Amino acid sequence: MTAIFFFSVVVFGCLGHGFLQVNEYIVSVSVSEGDSVTLLTGIKKNQEDRNRWYCNDTRIAQINGDRSKTCTDVQCNEGTERFRDRLKLDHQTGSLTIRNITITDSGLYTLTINSRSNKKTFKISVHVVSAAERDTMKRKSVKEGESVTLDPGVIKRPIDPVRWYVNITLIAEITEDQSKICEDVQCEERFRDRLKLDNQTGSLTITDTRTTDSGEYTLKISRSRNHYTVTSIKSITVSVTGSGLSSAAVAGIVVVVGVVVAAAAVIYFCRRKTRNAEESPHDHRESQQVMPIMQQHEDD
């Protein structure tokens, strides 16, 4: 079960000489719960500019040119803690970043520059993942020797940078049309020639998995567009279970079985040869006793 909540982008431009020219357009932004989104002003703010951000007409962030009056969330809107520690203002551009987005963040986000006549309003869709789907996305279990593919779960463009980490070690990345795998010595020793990175989708495949590959793999992908940047951070726990016996143990068992079979064959043939040797003189004596009797009957 999924749900989508929306915000919109409406842009108004204010020109000089007392005339107001209004340009309105909508930009849809699709994000998932837990993502971070940066709402871009598209300008380099002047020192005297005063930027204010509103969510559903409630002020949530403000920055003055001299930075003497900068606030976010609690300080701006008289104690409301809806965005506590999740808002960040860029002092150079006035752009606003909302971290770890939740469904309660739905609404209209409006930027005003100097006055309400010059403003920009954003509309974002928040994709809510069901608990079952989220668990499937976050956990991968395979048997030793099998391959496992870690999927970003988002559609990327060629320019979108992708980075994969295991624990805190960077193991693979895509920047524009360049891909890099295991440039770290420790990574190279651990995953030697067993990582494959799909430049089109950003997915990471681990071949010939080993129990030492178990751990938490983290994806960081940034999708930059004209009016916003969405950063997705996704963690996947990989569990690689042993096949029961290691390859060395299996090889050892095969060798032992082979030796036992060979020894049994040697013993069998030796005993058979000894038995034949013991029976041979006895059979010769019997033949000597039988022959005279047969000859006697012939003489009669």
Give a verbal description of the structure.
The structure is a single chain. The chain has helices at residues 131-138, 185-190, 247-299, and strands spanning 3-5, 10-11, 13-14, 20-21, 28-32, 36-39, 51-55, 58-63, 71-72, 87-89, 96-98, 109-113, 115-128, 139-143, 148-150, 162-166, 169-175, 178-181, 195-197, 204-206, 215-224, 228-241. The chain has 300 residues and is α+β, with helices and mostly antiparallel strands. It has two domains: 23-128, Immunoglobulins (Immunoglobulin-like); 130-241, Immunoglobulin-like (Sandwich). Strands 6, 10, 11, 14, 16, 17, 18, 21 and 22 form a nine-stranded mixed β-sheet that branches. Strands 1, 2, 5, 7, 8, 9, 12 and 13 form an eight-stranded mixed β-sheet that branches. It has a three-stranded antiparallel β-sheet with strand order 15-20-19, with no helix packed on it.
Largest sheet: 9 strands, mixed
The average pLDDT score comes to: 75
Overall number of structural domains: 2
CATH class of the largest domain: Mainly Beta
Could you state the order of secondary-structure elements as H and E?
A: EEEEEEEEEEEEEHEEEEEHEEEEH
What count of helical segments does DSSP give? 3
Shape annotation: elongated
Measured distance between first and last alpha carbons: 111 Å
* E-strand count: 22
Helix content: 10-25%
Rg computed from alpha carbons, rounded to a whole number of angstroms = 38 Å
Estimate what percentage of residues fall within beta strands.
35-45%
Signal peptide: 1-16
Region (Disordered): 276-300
Transmembrane segments: 248-270
Pfam family, one: V-set
